[in-house]
Amino acid sequence: MVSSAEALRAQEPAVDPGEAPAAPRQPVSIENAVEDRAIAERLDDILSSTGWFENATVEVREGVVFLDGAAGSQDHRRWAGELAANTEGTVAVVNRIEVRADLRSTFGRAGEESTRLYGQAVQAWPLVLLALVIALATFLVAALIGRFSRGFLSTRISSPLLRSVVVRAITIPVFLLGIYFVLRVAGLTSLAVTVLGGTGLIGIVIGFAFRDIAENFLASLLLSIRNPFRSGDLIDVAGHVGIVQNLNTRSTVLLTLDGNHVQIPNAMVFKSIIKNYSSIPSRRAEFLVGIGYDSSTAKAQALISEVLREHPAVLETPEPLVLVDQLGAATVDLKVQYWFDSATYSPAKINSALLRLSKNALLSGGIELPDPAREVVFPQGVPFYRRDRPAEKSPASTKQKKSPPVDDQAVTIGEGNLQSETREAAERPRGEIPESSENLLKG
């Protein structure tokens, strides 16, 4: 006598283990009342008849089907779950069937996945071609807009860095719009919206991460707009004195008077006090001269004024001054102020020449130049007596003072030609300027 399970297997078609399983197209029906036991028996018979599963067990409680056992592939496991879900009377399915690690099935799944990807690629290549065309068109349009903007702004914005920033601000939105269309064509609409919406957030994150770099970049932008100095100017900034060589997006490069390159971050340059010695041709310098209390102050002023008037490096306008600065412990201090052409002459060399000439003029005019550290004044003098013979004048008092040597040259060999160090440094070989590929300064 044939059992009901065997009759069921005889009626069902044979299943080839190599074929991919397919879910039942029609719901599995059970005659009469649908009970948990009937559902379990029916599913157990079908799973056993396929031969795909090991130790397959089916348990049904209140319409919830619990599947246990092992399957040869993920497709077989999925098939069993869909079969249980389509069975009449099933409320829910808990699929606990495990998949065995089978090398043959793994390679089979890899081949099936490759075939599926190849089919999708064949279907998607027109969209890929369209996306490439849109990307190329976007690049060309952005390049044309950038070239037109650069030519339009070349006469309106003098700063090359600001002009570059404005051109990028115009072309980047065009490029982002092209990326948006490319993602839309690829079917990634949500990703396209995310890219456009996250651009601002990414900018904020990058700004915090590279705060110092962004600060120097903004400082270079402002310096290139305001132009507090030009290439070749002699400036004093952040405690460094040098000739401006280069201004890039990170730093300002100075050539110091001793021949060294100094790079100062633009943020520090922008925040510091800048002295530009080349912005105005004329420049004032001063020095102090101390004379004795017994000497004529007016005569000393006249002698120094004569030296200033006769020297070729001293400007007539503004007028040079010789002022009484203070009454010291042993000297009357005179402050000498004069103006000169800073683009032509060196302040250190002119000071040397004027101090030398003033010293000679004062000594020749009988003006004492005492040393405050050693000068001791006795208003009534210091008499000296000997007991064995009458007092006589000291030999030192009868010795005549030697006249100072004649030294009335405007410039000596030691003072060079009074030429400005800026010009001398510019004439020296500069070597390789750091980061000299770009210069955001005028001149």
TrEMBL record:
Q: Which terms in the GO cellular component ontology are assigned?
A: plasma membrane
Q: How does it sit in the membrane?
A: Multi-pass membrane protein
Which SUPFAM superfamilies does the protein's record reference?
Mechanosensitive channel protein MscS (YggB), C-terminal domain, Sm-like ribonucleoproteins
Q: Which UniProt keywords apply?
A: Cell inner membrane, Cell membrane, Ion channel, Ion transport, Membrane, Transmembrane, Transmembrane helix, Transport
Regions of compositional bias (Basic and acidic residues) in chain numbering: 421-433
Give the stretches traversing the membrane: 124-145, 165-183, 189-210
Can you give the residue ranges of the BON domain?
A: 35-101
Molecular function (Gene Ontology), one example: mechanosensitive monoatomic ion channel activity
| Cross-referenced InterPro entries | BON_dom, LSM_dom_sf, MS_channel_C, MscS_archaea/bacteria_type, MscS_beta-dom_sf, MscS_channel_2nd, MscS_channel_C_sf, MscS_channel_CS
- Where does it reside? Cell inner membrane; Cell membrane
- Cite the residue spans of the region called Disordered: 1-29, 386-443
* Domain of life assignment: Bacteria
Q: What is its main location?
A: membrane
Q: Which family does it belong to?
A: Belongs to the MscS (TC 1.A.23) family.
Q: How does it assemble?
A: Homoheptamer.
Per the entry, what this protein does is: Mechanosensitive channel that participates in the regulation of osmotic pressure changes within the cell, opening in response to stretch forces in the membrane lipid bilayer, without the need for other proteins. Contributes to normal resistance to hypoosmotic shock. Forms an ion channel of 1.0 nanosiemens conductance with a slight preference for anions.
Name recorded for this polypeptide: Small-conductance mechanosensitive channel
- Recorded source organism is Aquibium oceanicum
Q: Lineage, please? A: Bacteria, Pseudomonadati, Pseudomonadota, Alphaproteobacteria, Hyphomicrobiales
